[in-house]
């Protein structure tokens, strides 16, 4: 049954990655042209998407503790469908921002927060491989999303039909995941309630309060946030940046999809490697890959530079999600894993400022290059900090360190 759970979450994450952050950047040039938006307004949509996805992260954690994963997935499914329909019908910036807000909330309820917790609990012995498979499915979705949009738009000339297709996918996969998870929760007697209750002991990991008091937790948060900053901003503007430098739409889409393919392979390899390789090293690799991908966009966009971008950006995306999730779990255990992952996601909302800043800079000076350079510097700096960090050590007796 746990294999079915993994498959259901992976299929849903495939859809989320295909239809939100990864393909919105492909649709934005058409949206900007048809609705006469500025690039600052277009970037604001990505900011709203990211803020909604991060700022609401404690809510699904609370819903899971009280009502279970199945109810959480149903709520997220409704939000996703409403968001896709809003984008399909939008006539101005207001509906555009409402649609991205709803998609961010739906991503939060249906995405990594319930999945990492449920998969981590179901696959105690093979957690790294299972989480790696989950993120691999999402990155395959990142490959498929832009290509699917390109195919629909090329054949119909209508970008709105793509969002309606995404709404149908959310209905089917959301219902399937909710039904499967509901059945699994009844069979397995899944633990909800507050962290540390219902038989969980201190030996299973740090309490949330103890973990939040360590500087190592905030280093993991900084690493996740830096990777997300680069990921979100590059997805927002890489396509338009390439078009502005005489790269054809077909070629730009191809390299962005190639990056997503590399990310899928990297996530799978990171999941396997995570069984033996220190998750801290995986996280450093992700940060450096992300930083170098931003630097690659600053270079003259030859085929070699674009290939380097696809390789490094894919490594950064694919390894970052696996590496940070494993690092958090390895350092602090699973006792308060749901709450800690949610807090990390909330703080990482600050990464959503990247697209707004990048869009404003483009409107002001006509280039995305300063934004790419700035975020590359942040990625390299955080990579150095993570590389020098060591695992947290409990103070005093084990019980004292882990007590709530």
TrEMBL record:
Keyword Membrane set for record: yes
A Pfam short name: MFS_1
Keyword Transmembrane part of the UniProt annotation: yes
Membrane-spanning residues: 41-64, 71-90, 96-119, 131-153, 159-181, 217-240, 252-272, 284-302, 308-328, 340-362, 368-389
Gene3D superfamilies in the record: MFS general substrate transporter like domains
Keywords, alphabetical: Membrane, Transmembrane, Transmembrane helix
Top-level lineage group: Bacteria
InterPro entries (UniProt xref): MFS (IPR011701), MFS_dom (IPR020846), MFS_trans_sf (IPR036259), Proton-linked_MCT (IPR050327)
Ranges for domain Major facilitator superfamily (MFS) profile: 3-394
Listed name of the protein: Major facilitator superfamily (MFS) profile domain-containing protein
Organism of provenance: Novosphingobium pituita
The organism's taxonomic lineage, starting at the top: Bacteria, Pseudomonadati, Pseudomonadota, Alphaproteobacteria, Sphingomonadales
